[in-house]
């Protein structure tokens, strides 16, 4: 250590130990950060005493003689008017001490307790699907669980037909996992939950390629396909499960390219559609398929519920993407396409999942682009004919989350 560094270090120690200046040690930094007397507003504070008469706090003045006896004046004015390596300002020493103490304190705090940025780039950290799921697995969701209706209630002939010819019941050991899905689907986006905000920020960054956090409210969310400035208002009918499914899609390395392809198509000049709103509608289809026990057989086979539901969601979104792209659909066709996807997905879940498996395998082998070209060639010049209003009830895309399911049974309870 050279003479200049040694001088600065000794002088800095005197600054930190000087009476009337709060100790900037990491342990007391949190206690001191509310004082605004310091150069950076972190840890410099005058000594205070309590007035026994009126209970008010009085500031003690710091006499210049104290500085002299402490040795600060000697070290700061060494050499008189000559500029030497010992010449340094008190403010600079204070600033250096504060920054060093702040950095030390931040490093010692857990990520979830740190104020402001949570990584070196000044952004909240990305969150994986499993980490977000663990949050809900450990959260108290009793109020949500007690209100769920996990299966469709049937009566009369419908109940008998379903019992004799319908899908098998979900195994008992999987019912708790199924109920967790429906509980998450009732949770709204909560600004006070850090996990919720991390999920939202992760989706935004993975789809747009942004490096920094986006504002919680603003028109930038419309770029992702939400209807307004607050994504939380679009989660009716699916709750936070709508964001969980999108998170799964963008955080799975094998599925992320598909998510970006769909997102890219959603910004096509003529075939554009609101990506996140479409995703939420696919989640709605998945919820209904699970409640109607369309997925019970596959869940029993794999001994999983959430993993099957995630794959079903991605498979249904892939099915919609291929229809939309190859048949040159537009926003005016959205209601009809969603209804077509829902009908096919519920009746053919095994085929739909197999189709996803094949797609991902072909993509890994570089065969997807060739397949897409073949499909597009088969539909070249064959735009889908507009459906007559006399034959089909027109569905408004923006209100598709409010659609009633097919009148299959009596007394059905829905999340929407």
Rounded to an integer, what's the Rg over CA atoms? 31 Å
Strand order of the largest sheet: 1-2
Question: Averaged pLDDT, please?
Answer: 73
Uncertain regions spanning at least 5 consecutive residues: 19-69, 71-87, 109-117, 379-416
Query: How many strands, what sense, and barrel or not for the largest sheet?
Result: 2 strands, antiparallel
Helicity, as a percent range: 40-55%
Distance between the termini: 69 Å
Which secondary-structure class do the elements indicate?
A: mainly alpha
N-to-C SSE series? Answer: HHEEHHHHHHHHHHHHHHHHH
* Number of distinct helices: 19
Shape: globular
- What percentage of the residues does DSSP assign to strands (E)? under 5%
Question: What is the oligomeric state here?
Answer: single chain
- Care to count the β-strands? 2
Describe the structure.
It is a single chain. The chain has helices at about 5-15, 25-30, 65-70, 70-75, 90-110, 130-140, 140-145, 155-165, 175-185, 195-210, 220-225, 240-250, 255-265, 275-290, 295-300, 305-325, 335-345, 350-365, 370-380; strands spanning about 50, 55-60. It is mainly α. It has a two-stranded antiparallel ribbon. α1 packs across α5 (about 90-110) and α2 (about 25-30) packs across α5. It is globular and about 90 Å long.
Structural features:
mainly alpha; 416 residues; disordered C terminus
Short description:
This protein has about 425 residues and is an all-alpha fold.
């Amino acid at each position: 250590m050279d003479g200049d560094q040694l001088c600065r270090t000794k002088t800095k120690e005197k600054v930190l130990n000087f009476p009337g200046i709060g100790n900037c040690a990491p342990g007391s930094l949190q206690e001191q950060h509310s004082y605004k007397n310091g150069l950076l507003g972190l840890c410099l504070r005058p000594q205070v005493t309590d007035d026994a008469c009126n209970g008010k706090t009085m500031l003690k003045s710091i006499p210049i003689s104290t500085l002299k006896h402490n040795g600060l004046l000697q070290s700061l004015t060494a050499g008189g008017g000559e500029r030497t390596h010992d010449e340094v300002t008190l403010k600079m020493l204070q600033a250096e001490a504060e920054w060093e103490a702040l950095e030390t304190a931040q490093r010692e705090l857990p990520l979830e307790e740190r104020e402001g940025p949570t990584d070196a780039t000044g952004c909240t950290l990305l969150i994986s699907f499993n980490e977000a799921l663990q949050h809900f697995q450990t959260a108290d969701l009793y109020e949500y669980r007690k209100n769920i209706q996990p299966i469709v209630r049937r009566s009369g002939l419908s109940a008998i037909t379903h019992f004799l010819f319908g899908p098998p019941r979900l195994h008992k050991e999987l019912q708790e996992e199924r109920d967790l899905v429906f509980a998450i689907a009732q949770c709204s986006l909560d600004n006070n939950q850090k996990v919720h905000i991390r999920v939202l920020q992760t989706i935004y960054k993975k789809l747009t390629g942004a490096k920094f956090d986006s504002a919680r409210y603003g028109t930038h969310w419309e770029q992702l396909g939400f209807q307004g400035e607050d994504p939380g208002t679009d989660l009716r009918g699916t709750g936070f499960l709508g964001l969980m499914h999108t998170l799964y899609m963008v955080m799975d390395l094998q599925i992320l390219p598909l998510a970006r392809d769909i997102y890219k198509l959603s910004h096509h000049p003529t075939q554009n559609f609101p990506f996140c709103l479409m995703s939420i509608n696919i989640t709605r289809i998945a919820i209904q398929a699970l409640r109607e026990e369309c997925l019970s057989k596959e869940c029993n086979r794999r001994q999983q519920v959430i993993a099957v539901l995630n794959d079903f969601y991605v498979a249904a979104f892939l099915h919609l993407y291929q229809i939309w792209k190859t048949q040159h659909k537009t926003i005016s066709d959205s209601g009809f396409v969603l209804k077509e996807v829902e009908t096919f997905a519920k009746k053919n879940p095994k085929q739909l999942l197999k189709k996803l498996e094949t797609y991902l395998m072909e993509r890994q082998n570089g065969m997807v682009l060739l397949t897409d070209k073949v499909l597009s060639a088969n539909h070249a010049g064959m735009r889908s004919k507009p459906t007559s209003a006399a034959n089909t009830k027109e569905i408004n895309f923006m209100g598709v989350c409010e659609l009633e399911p097919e009148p299959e049974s009596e007394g059905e309870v829905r999340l929407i």
